[in-house]
Design brief:
ALKBH4, Jelly Rolls, 4 helices, binds fe (ii) ion, binds 2-oxoglutaric acid, single chain, alpha+beta, Alpha-ketoglutarate-dependent dioxygenase AlkB, seven-stranded antiparallel β-sheet, oxidoreductase, globular, about 20% helix
């Protein structure tokens, strides 16, 4: 279990697992990921350095639509099932998967995941990064940094998912993350489920 830098206490809703997948599984997944047709992340007129591919349900940051897209492919289902178990969910509750490809120099700014989603499980592959977390306080922010080793996983739920923001500074080496998300009540209403 990774320790939080300089923060002995745990943040409610944050769960970490090192060696969530084996090296053999990581190698096989990286081979598959190299074949995935990712495209630059679009936020309104802004094009990010991060490359993405979405499966299942997709929130469009350009027109704020939420729509069903191609299903999670078979090769990701064993990892989806493992992510569901890690989050205490049934496999079928995870209906969305986002692949993020971060080339050197790419990162992800401070944000909270869209309210259409509830639980968030992130799996890291390829190289290490630091997940930065911050929670607004009366006079600033409470900040925590979480090292993300390759093959590790994190769960964002409850307080850390809803009351904290997260981001990742620019990557030094190619890193992939695979994010699995369940739908929130709002997302289920929008999805008609
Ligand atoms: O790369 C990561 O682990 C973070 C991804 C993330 O925060 C997101 O896609 O919302
Ligand atoms: Fe996120």
């Amino acid at each position: 279990m990774a320790d939080l830098f300089g923060e002995p206490e745990r943040i409610p809703g944050l769960k970490l697992a090192d060696e969530f997948i084996s090296r053999v599984d990581e190698t096989a997944l990286l081979e598959r990921l190299a074949e995935v047709a990712t495209s630059p992340f679009q936020f309104q007129q802004y094009t990010g350095k991060r490359q993405v591919k979405t499966y299942g349900w997709r929130y469009d940051f350009t027109d704020a639509s939420f729509a069903e897209v191609e299903p999670i492919p078979d090769w990701l289902l064993p990892l989806r099932d493992r992510a569901a178990a890690f989050a205490g969910l049934e496999p079928g509750e995870i209906v969305h998967c986002l692949i993020n490809r971060y080339d050197p120099g790419a990162g992800i700014g401070w944000h909270r995941d869209r309210p259409f989603f509830e639980q968030v499980v992130g799996v890291s592959l390829g190289s290490a990064a630091v997940l930065a977390l911050r929670q607004r306080t009366a006079d600033g922010f409470r900040r925590v940094k979480v090292p993300l080793e390759p093959r590790s996983a994190y769960l964002l739920s409850g307080e850390v998912r809803h009351e904290w923001e997260h981001g990742i500074a620019e990557h030094r080496a190619l890193r992939w993350s695979i994010t699995f998300r369940s739908l929130s009540a709002k997302g289920r209403r929008r999805a008609g489920r």
